């Protein structure tokens, strides 16, 4: 960043461009694990304003079956308008990469929230719309239209990630396997009946 006199976002974009320019140096063929996780910073500019990250994903697709896992932090559940904005970022990544896609509400272990409210958000229930209508804000009508668009087109849903609940990890792993059709490629077991 200092060499180019860039801020954090500019520095990240240059770092991604540098990665892509040298991507053939990554020995992806030698990886033997079932998963390769690429954790990306949350700056939306990295995949909206530049094709570099999309090109990196396209390169990975040569070696792996890929799935986008979009995380939204649990704090978004405390503000319905913020949550709807997060839903649109999820839609943006779905459109940008055209890959199997999962949305996850993360860090639920760090937020005191009732099970009922969490399910309302995960299922995009009508009560979210009610919360938006009750708030006073200049963009409430826009937010309501965005909510209607998401719900009417059944475009976004969320899984839960709670560090204190191992079942949420199992559900996510199973959902990823299902999204990439992992079990369709698995070798059948030999059931010899002699």
TrEMBL record:
InterPro entries: Gpn, P-loop_NTPase. It is an enzyme of class 3 (hydrolase). Keywords: Cytoplasm, GTP-binding, Hydrolase, Nucleotide-binding. It is found in: Cytoplasm; Nucleus. It comes from the Eukaryota. GO terms for cellular component: cytoplasm; nucleus. It holds the Pfam family ATP_bind_1. GO terms for molecular function: GTP binding; GTPase activity. Its EC number is 3.6.5.-. Small GTPase required for proper nuclear import of RNA polymerase II (RNAPII). May act at an RNAP assembly step prior to nuclear import. Belongs to the GPN-loop GTPase family. Binds to RNA polymerase II. This is GPN-loop GTPase. It comes from Hamiltosporidium tvaerminnensis.
């Amino acid at each position: 960043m200092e060499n180019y006199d860039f801020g954090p976002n500019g520095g990240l974009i240059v770092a991604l461009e540098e990665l892509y320019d040298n991507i053939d140096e990554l020995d992806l063929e030698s990886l033997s694990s079932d998963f390769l996780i690429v954790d990306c910073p949350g700056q939306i500019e990295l995949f909206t304003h530049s094709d570099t990250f999309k090109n990196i994903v396209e390169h990975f697709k040569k070696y792996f079956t890929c799935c986008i896992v979009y995380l939204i932090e649990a704090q978004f559940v405390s503000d319905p308008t913020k949550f709807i904005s997060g839903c649109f970022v999820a839609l943006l990544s779905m459109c940008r990469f055209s890959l199997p896609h999962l949305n996850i509400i993360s860090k639920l272990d760090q937020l005191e929230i009732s099970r009922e409210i969490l399910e309302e958000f995960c299922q995009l229930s009508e009560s979210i719309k009610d919360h938006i209508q009750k708030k006073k804000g200049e963009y409430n009508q826009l937010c309501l239209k965005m909510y209607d668009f998401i719900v009417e087109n059944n475009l976004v849903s969320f899984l839960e990630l709670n560090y204190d609940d191992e079942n949420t990890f199992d559900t996510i792993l199973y959902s990823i396997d299902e999204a990439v059709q992992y079990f369709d490629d698995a070798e059948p077991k030999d059931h010899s009946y002699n």
